[in-house]
Amino acid sequence: METEGIVLRSRDLGDRLRHISVYTEKLGKIDLLVKVLSKEFPLKYEPFSLTLFKLNQKGDKWEVLESKLVKENFPKSTEELTYRAKVAKAILPLQLPPDRKTYRLIKMYMGQGGAPPTYTAFLMKFLFLEGLMPRLFRCVECGSRKITGFSVEKGGVVCEKCKGEEDLIWKREVSEEAYRLTKEPLEQLKKKNFKWLNLIERAAERHLKFRADR
Ligand SMILES: [Zn+2]
Fold first, then answer.
1. What pLDDT does 214 receive?
2. What separation in Å is there between the alpha carbon of 182 and the centre of ligand 1?
3. Is residue 86 exposed (0-12), middle (13-18) or buried (19+ Cβ within 10 Å)?
């Protein structure tokens, strides 16, 4: 079978062997053991690369028959490296079954440069597509609209009465920004100013991690 995939992590095992984690279009996230031939330039197995794999199923594992680099996303600046590494790190712990929309999102965002609000927009859009969207406008506990916190554990915003000690401080304006980041196209978002990116990023990362851990 043939599938395109985005390399999320690559570990050198020595002896030209590498262990790579790839989010593929047709199989979702899989792990592969690859051998780098001496005549090959292993860019196709580098993190963030878009690679076409020809695979053969062997028991519950996949064996690489052939592979070809489609597009390298090798970072050209520290900003690009930091950004792409954060995208890969956010999704690595998750079980990711194949999904056309999620694949398109990750492929598109892996090729981005990483200037704000790109990463935060990625997180919000990813949460939305995965059905993990936090509640943003009404307290998750009691439904009140007077929100003052964000509870990772409860999965969204909370009011003063329902807020716990460890919850993030929040307000409606932050939710409005988070909502825009989820819904509007990146090109449009790049032209706007955001005040609460760090806070939204922190909440979205924790929200995702909390859900990935269970
Ligand atoms: Zn409440």
1. 67
2. 24
3. middle
For ligand 1, the distance from its centroid to the CA atom of residue 171, given in whole angstroms, is 13
Residue whose pair of structure tokens reads 């690679």 in the numeric block: 51
| pTM > 0.70: yes or no | yes
Query: 2-71, superfamily in CATH?
Result: Nucleic acid-binding proteins (2.40.50.140)
Give me 91's structure tokens.
């999704």
- How remote is the CA of residue 147 from the centroid of ligand 1, in Å? 8
Distance 131 CA to ligand 1 centre (A): 23
**204 C-alpha vs ligand 1 centroid, how far in Å?**
20
Consecutive 10-residue averages of pLDDT for the chain (214 residues):
97 93 97 88 92 95 95 95 97 93 97 96 97 97 98 97 97 98 98 97 96 78
What are the residue boundaries of the structural domains of the chain, listed by start?
A: 2-71, 116-212
